[in-house]
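ESCALATION

Customer reports they have been waiting on this structure for their group meeting. Please prioritize. Original submission:
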Amino acid sequence: MPIATLSNTLNAPGIHRRPTANIGIAMPAPPRANGKEKRVATAVVYCEANFGAIDGKTANGLVRHSEMYEILSVIDSEKAGLDAGVVLDERPNAIPICRDLTDALRLAGGIVPDTFIYGMAPSSGMLSTHERGIVLEAMGLGMNVVNGLHEFLSEDPVFAAASAANNVTILDVRKPRAKKDLRMFSGRISQVTCPRIAVLGTDGAIGKRTTATILTRALNDRGVKAVMVGTGQTGLIQGARYGIALDAIPSQFCSGEMEASVIEAFEGEDPDVIIVEGQGALSHPAYLTSTFILRGSRPDGVVLQHAPGRTKLGDFGAMAMPTPASEINLIQTFADTKVIGLTINHENMTDGEVGAAITSYERELGIPATDALTRSPARLVAMVLSAFPELKEKLTASA
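Update from on-call: job pushed to the front of the queue and completed.
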């Protein structure tokens, strides 16, 4: 939509600006504080031409799970009018997909949402010229901005001025602490006495975070106290209490920051098990964060996510996908850990093909396999309990 048209919505009948927030850059508050229920901020997620696709993974994740924000709608003109849950998982969730920001405001009843979330993860890590205009228009309407890109909008003079002029905040999720505050690896990870399980994958944007989230929830539902440590922008936007955007941290500090995040989760929650979200793939030529996840968190076990229907790497169409067997061999050679199970991303697959792949991989690899989204979460729980029988004993004792 042209910027001038969006500007006109500021004074359009029935459009009510929300009360604006404090000026500056701030982290959003968690939904609960001091045990009291807090209002969850409302949000519109921008994902033009990418919702349900690989580069729309932030929007995809927020539609499936968000503790920090109430997602009111998704903007993607190519899928406007559809239900976001139907597009992703063939199950309606009452989150509409809108044509543009004006359409999103109309569906919100004329009340401007609290937050505008940029919901894409392009390999460039930068906003296009058109997208800069869309974000500035949202700020002009009184919406705070959540940005998961490598481009820090809070450091851009144009966006900083818009933040001050409109009394709204910019949250650059990937922006790390000052270098003087970053942590080196210390070896204190040895003091974490509960099992640590990393959910790694054979490619980027393959469903590692989704599987880790479902696994964490399923374990907690069965009485096993699990806490998830996020390692990317989407998990942090969703509301992960512990974690860092690992790919934005200087490599000197990556292992230390990973270690420290796991220790903070252990000391803060006293969990039975810690689930660590994976990034990229150990074999990936460009997205190498798995190396620091393995070195810093030193997982006792790994769940590997794979997409049998994906023949080429997502962002590198000339490069073939690795096989699960080759990735498992690489992981177990690189780190003192064991792959305890395989989870499947069912993109480009029928349900029958998913079932056949599960059977085939279990036979080939000798480990349990499942699809976190289309099969029962009980299969994920059984995968973990089989590898860590002490958790099964704890579950029995607490039942």
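Sent to customer with the following note: Residues 3-172 form a domain with the Rossmann fold fold (CATH 3.40.50.720).
Escalation resolved.
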